[in-house]
Task: inverse folding
């Protein structure tokens, strides 16, 4: 059995209870057969075994008191996966579906995504099974303070710099940062996604969604097309989705959908972003309320968003939200390109269909890397005690996304499959991490 297959098998056997982690590892390692065969040193150095094993895994109790005076207990996680190319960097997710396998899959993907940005950041991820939905601001603050009271011992501006993810936005980052500062007395860039008044970076909130659209445009440009005039289906209604919608509209495309975990809206006239923001960001309500403002739109409870006919699909909600049947529906509807805003939103079966049917496909670790890249720019600004302008950061983001596209398409070409950006992204990101790990010895 080949080295790659042995490592995959070992991960499958050991982590049967972590299906998302096994899925992420299998998808990546399966792209690396040729690279590994070309570099026999990797096996001798146990490189893959080290790559799939986090450097450190933290799990901790998070006790807090709800508004009724009842003590609640959640579980907190921080997986410090790989620091070969820089301090651990990756978001915190607060969602009831969070468990160790989910955090490990996200952390593993993060190593490679961060490598693609070209910046000096290693991979990590964390979070909790805490559900922010329906909680008061006081409960959110109490939870965040308790979470940070344990986490602060293990993070720092030069060691591990967490950020937001699902369920962790500006409000939560503010509470987490305040508690870190209170416990350590340090005003340092230990978290990214901070508010502008206390060390945050302009364009950080926009960066993942904008970056996704910049990369999509780059992909289309290289295939003789552009976003202008295209119909786009976006899932989600959070940070990534809303900024993707904003930039798509700015570049002349029409986004006709938005969704949350309850269901989805189809507005053939184009999604009204101000309404989505008012419902989801200001009122923290359900997307179904959209109909109260735009009665001609349709709302469907549950799944089915990918049955809407479109030129481009951008899954921006969560992992495995787009399966084989959804992929078939997109192909049937004439979809040209699928670009992932979320982490691992397409199942392996769906990706195979896209690749087989010649749909342009940009995987999340490349397409959504603009967020973490801008987080690294926030770290630089914090270290320099400077604030750069929005235009300056946006211009850097555009260059970073164009460079990522260039690198992954070049790697795909090098390995004889120019249209396989899954291969390109995995190979391009892995080569840099592998080189750094080899150079630093057995650690
Ligand atoms: P938000 O919490 O801002 O928004 C998440 C959106 O997805 C919400 O609309 C939410 O609906 C929906 N959603 C969450 N879980 C599910 C589910 N199980 N089924 C259907 N819909 C769901 O998160 P972000 O926008 O920040 O993150 C979205 C994705 O992008 C995630 O995969 C994240 O890892 C990835 N990502 C985020 C980055 C960032 O900078 N924020 C950077 C790179 C990747 P509801 O309101 O009902 O919960």
Result:
């Amino acid at each position: 059995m080949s080295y790659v297959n042995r490592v995959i098998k070992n991960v499958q056997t050991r982590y049967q209870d972590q299906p998302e982690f096994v899925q992420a590892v299998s998808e990546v390692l399966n792209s690396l057969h040729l690279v590994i065969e070309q570099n026999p040193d990797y096996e001798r150095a146990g490189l893959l075994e080290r790559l799939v094993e986090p450097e450190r895994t933290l799990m901790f109790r998070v006790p807090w008191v709800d508004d009724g005076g009842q003590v609640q207990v959640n579980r907190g996680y921080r997986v410090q996966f790989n620091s070969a190319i820089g301090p651990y960097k990756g978001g915190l997710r607060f969602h009831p579906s969070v468990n160790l396998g989910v955090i490990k899959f996200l952390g593993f993907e993060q190593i490679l995504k961060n490598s693609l940005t070209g910046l000096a950041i290693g991979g990590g991820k964390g979070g909790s099974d805490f559900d922010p939905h329906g909680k008061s601001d006081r409960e959110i603050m109490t939870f965040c303070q308790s979470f940070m009271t344990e986490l602060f011992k293990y993070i720092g501006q030069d060691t591990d710099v967490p950020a937001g993810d699902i369920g962790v936005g500006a409000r939560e980052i503010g509470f987490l940062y305040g508690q870190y500062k209170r416990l350590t007395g340090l005003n340092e860039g230990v978290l990214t996604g901070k508010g502008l008044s206390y060390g945050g970076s302009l364009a950080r909130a926009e960066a993942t969604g904008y970056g996704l659209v910049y990369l999509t445009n780059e992909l289309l440009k290289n295939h003789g097309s552009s976003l202008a005039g295209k119909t786009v289906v976006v899932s989600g209604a959070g940070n990534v989705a809303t900024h993707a919608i904003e930039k798509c509209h700015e570049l002349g495309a029409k986004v006709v959908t938005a969704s949350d975990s309850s269901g989805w809206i189809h507005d053939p006239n184009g999604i009204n972003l101000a309404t989505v923001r008012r419902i989801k960001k200001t009122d923290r309500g359900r997307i179904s309320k959209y109909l109260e403002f735009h009665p001609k739109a349709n709302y469907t409870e549950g799944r089915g968003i990918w049955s809407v006919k479109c030129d481009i699909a951008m899954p921006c909600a969560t992992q495995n939200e787009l399966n084989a049947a959804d992929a078939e529906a997109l192909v049937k509807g004439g979809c040209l390109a699928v670009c992932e805003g979320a982490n691992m939103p397409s199942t392996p079966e769906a990706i195979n269909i896209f690749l087989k049917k010649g749909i342009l496909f940009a995987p999340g670790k490349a397409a959504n890397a603009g967020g973490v890249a801008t987080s690294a720019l926030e770290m630089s600004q914090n270290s320099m005690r400077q604030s750069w302008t929005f235009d300056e950061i946006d211009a850097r983001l555009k260059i970073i996304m164009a460079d990522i596209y260039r690198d992954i398409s070049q790697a795909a070409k090098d390995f004889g499959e120019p249209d396989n950006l899954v291969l390109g992204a995995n190979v391009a990101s892995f080569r840099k991490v592998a080189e750094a790990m080899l150079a630093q010895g057995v650690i």
Remarks:
- The pocket of NDP is lined by residues 164-167, 169, 208, 236-241, 260-262, 316-318, 321, 341-343, 368, 371 (CB under 6 Å).
- The chain has 18 helices and 13 strands.
- Residues 390-414 form the longest helix (25 residues).
- The mean pLDDT is 97.
